[in-house]
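Box S1 | Example of a co-folding query
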Amino acid sequence: MAVQRGRQFFQNPGPTNIPDRVLRAIDRPAIDFMTPEFRTLAGDCAAGLRRIFKTESPILVFASSGHGAWEAALVNLFSPGDKVLVLESGYFSLNWGRIGEVLGLKVETVPGDWRQGVDPGAVEARLREDRAGEIKAVLLVHNETSTGVANRCAEVRRAIDRAGHPALFLVDVISALGCLDFRMDEWQVDVVVGGSQKGLMLPVGMSFTAISPKALKATETARLPRIYWDWRRFLTGRDQTSYSGTAPVHLFFGLKEALAMLEEEGLEQVFARHERLAEATRRAVRAWRQNNGPEIFAGDPRVQSNSVTAVLMPEGHDAEAVRRICLERFNVSLGGGLDRLNGRVFRIGHMGDLNEPMLLGALAAVEMAFGLAGVPHGKGGVDAAMEYLAG
Ligand code: PLP
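Box S1 (continued) | Returned holo structure for pyridoxal-5'-phosphate
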């Protein structure tokens, strides 16, 4: 590949751009994680995380990617043969379920259309049928990063309540946290699984688990084997006082800075910025849709995600070719299609540390790549985005 100058425009839906301030905060010598200095740092981070999760419950930090916190949630709550209900909305929802299968759980899936997201009515109907109370938990991915669908988390909660079902409610907020509104306590979510490398603007390597009192009770009787992930080893009251091995001290320094940045901007303004950039992206894609061009994969405007847009290619055109041109010609990195969507969609991440010109630069590269790849499309996607952003 030719030498490239300037910054890469990094438009992946995770990992995301790491702000210089976070990089500077991490760029320092190690400290001993047994000291009061580290305990204060970790305590400040926990308090900040609780404000983002909107909860009073404890939040544990693991040195792992999101997959670790996924597994932790299952091994801490269930026993072999327990039934859990996975709400299908895309690749990530199904993969969380697959971990459960490997662990020996009975995983039932409420089938879902990947373009529409989870239907709360179908969840209610299935739970109403479960008169024997076999279903121990409902597993939802709030924001399906593979499809650009933001599932209606509060409505799923109401569906569980309408069915009068006692199942635990487990939600993956990995690509929603710090991007979309989420309210753990108000929505009575029992376990929330987050990750560091998306809306929190950190390197990958830290995962988060917020645990409600109901979930803490369930962990006492769970019989799946666990050691690295055993929540009970780490909590003293509401505080995390130990880690599985060495605490990831540098990521804590980064986390403290990232939380400060989110609070400085104000969480509501952070959500509004994500919505604005997402809407600009959607307007660009709608303009490209002319002449039978690419379209937004998420079919229902109510569930189009404000942190990532998956773009569906016209039949016979390869999303990977567009991605390759964007990267090799214009140094713009986009997300690819996962699993059955490979080659069919590419994904524009608009989450984390991002502003208008960064997004416009990426959209311009995409529009040029369509031309170079011979993909039919309407002109003026970037103009539509600019008009909206200037409005
Ligand atoms: N869940 C969602 C919604 C994700 O987007 C991802 C990763 O992109 C994961 C889970 C898995 O997280 P990780 O890649 O950090 O293990």
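The radius of gyration is 21 Å. The chain has a mean pLDDT of 97.
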